[in-house]
Write a structure and sequence with these properties.
Elements: E1 5-8, H1 14-24, E2 29-32, H2 43-48, E3 56-58, E4 64-66, H3 68-78, H4 89-114, H5 116-119, H6 127-152, H7 164-178, H8 187-197, H9 200-212
Parallel strand pairs: 1-2
Antiparallel strand pairs: 1-3, 3-4
Helix pairs in contact: 1-3, 1-7, 1-9, 4-6, 4-7, 6-7, 7-8
């Protein structure tokens, strides 16, 4: 393998890594696998990522990076001029802080909405309560982000251009739109989403995913 490979699936949390790859400008191959066809559970893919999840970034030396925050951080480090991760120590620490926050909230608040019965251990009677609680938490997550954006001037790190944490936050907002969550008007988050979706790398990733969808 002569260049890194990003393993992902269309319109999943792996889409975030796909966007960041194109924003970075690095020469990385993107390979799509089908979760519906359970490609992520094949022996071939499990040899790459034993977690059986996407995304996974496979490097030419055989190393593999999993989990979106780690992949986004690596991309920002490998492409320092991309703006994904700030260069100063405090900025890098704050970027990690927000990436961790987004990742935690994705698992705690958004994933139970998609699969409440699974989080209830298959108990269909408990699933509605789990989903309702997750919906309330997800709405609270977006309201918290809205307040943060208002304090920092439109991006999570207060940077002129959106950074990796902003891409992650906008992905969470996209999940909320997909799930039709009843969230009050969030003008700062809406403005950030417009800026992120207009980034050439993000737009190109979304177009490619629609073509493969």
């Amino acid at each position: 393998m002569s260049r890194p490979v990003l393993w992902t699936s269309t319109f999943t949390s792996g889409s975030l890594a796909h966007e960041a790859v194109l924003v970075s400008g690095l020469d990385i191959e993107v390979r799509f696998i089908s979760l519906r066809n359970r490609d992520h559970k094949t022996p071939e893919y499990l040899a790459i990522n034993p977690k059986g999840e996407v995304p996974a970034l496979q490097l030419p030396d055989g190393s593999v990076i999993t989990e979106a925050p780690a992949i986004l951080f690596w991309l920002g480090e490998a492409a320092p001029d991309s703006g994904l991760i700030p260069r100063d120590p405090l900025g890098r620490a704050k970027a990690l802080e927000w990436l961790a926050w987004c990742h935690w909230n994705m698992g705690l608040n958004f994933r139970p909405i998609f699969g409440a019965a699974r989080f209830a251990g298959g108990d269909e009677t408990a699933a509605p309560a789990i989903r309702a609680a997750a919906v309330a938490r997800a709405a609270g997550t977006l309201r918290y982000a809205e307040a943060a954006l208002a304090r920092t001037g439109g991006t999570l790190l207060g940077t002129h251009a959106p950074s990796a944490p902003d891409l992650f936050l906008v992905a969470l907002a996209g999940f909320a739109r997909m799930l039709k969550l009843d969230v009050p008007d969030l003008p700062a988050l809406g403005a950030l989403a417009g800026r992120v979706l207009a980034m050439p790398g993000v737009a190109a990733a979304m177009e490619r995913e629609r073509a493969h969808g």
